[in-house]
Amino acid sequence: MAAVAAEVCVKAAVGAPDVLGDCPFSQRVLLTLEEKKIPYDTKLIDVSNKPDWFLAISPEGKVPVYKLDDGKWAPDSDVITQILEEKFPNPSLVAPQEYSSVGSKIFSSFIKFLKSKDANDGLEQALVDELHGLDEHLKQHVSGPYVNGENISAVDLSLAPKLFHLIIVLDHFKGWKVPENLTYVHAYVKLLFSRESFVKTKPAKDEYVIAGWAPKVNA
Ligand SMILES: N[C@@H](CCC(=O)N[C@@H](CS)C(=O)NCC(=O)O)C(=O)O
């Protein structure tokens, strides 16, 4: 019997509902499916025009949602990636508990800096500090290029789409770039963004990422 493909609802591109969009949480789930070589089907959701069938399976109206064996749908990328790890343990994407928080404040720091209108409010430095923490971790704590060393793990798959958004969006809206001296971060993103799984699951165009964030920048 052929394996049944996993089903996952993910965000469609802003203004292009037939194209894979720019949700970092959706991409995280797709990256997990790709890295574990689990066959899957995606349903693209136009979050500006959510169909009723989608709202019935995702009452909060958020993507991603993943179809469970009993036909119910599970929301939230944290929950979904945990379910995938338990159901498909090989290859393992588990990282030690002490590494689970590496880089975990980068995304929220990025959003605060993006929305900041005051150059002296310390939010740029707060983001640099978080990126510096990741750089130091990659430099000092592990022997390989990933957060957990030689092999990619769930921590990298969560961080990669967020770093992708950060780089595109801060450059576009603020002309800001990750400081050159964070050499380990630069090498890390280069490696992650060139992985086959990432190339397959990233938003089709950078413009979709920019369009996704534009309403939040001036909110
Ligand atoms: N904590 C959730 C966050 C999911 C989330 O915020 N998804 C956004 C798109 S990136 C969404 O569905 N937004 C649509 C809406 O809120 O209407 C996760 O990790 O999956």
TrEMBL record:
PROSITE patterns: GST_CTER (PS50405), GST_NTER (PS50404). SUPFAM superfamilies: GST C-terminal domain-like, Thioredoxin-like. InterPro entries: DHAR1/2/3/4 (IPR044627), Glutathione-S-Trfase_C-like (IPR010987), Glutathione-S-Trfase_C_sf (IPR036282), Glutathione_S-Trfase (IPR040079), Glutathione_S-Trfase_N (IPR004045), Thioredoxin-like_sf (IPR036249). One of its GO terms (molecular function) is glutathione dehydrogenase (ascorbate) activity. This is (wild Malaysian banana) hypothetical protein. PANTHER family: GLUTATHIONE S-TRANSFERASE DHAR2-RELATED. It catalyses: RX + glutathione = an S-substituted glutathione + a halide anion + H(+); L-dehydroascorbate + 2 glutathione = glutathione disulfide + L-ascorbate. Residues 13-92 form the GST N-terminal domain. Keywords: Detoxification, Oxidoreductase, Transferase. Belongs to the GST superfamily. DHAR family.
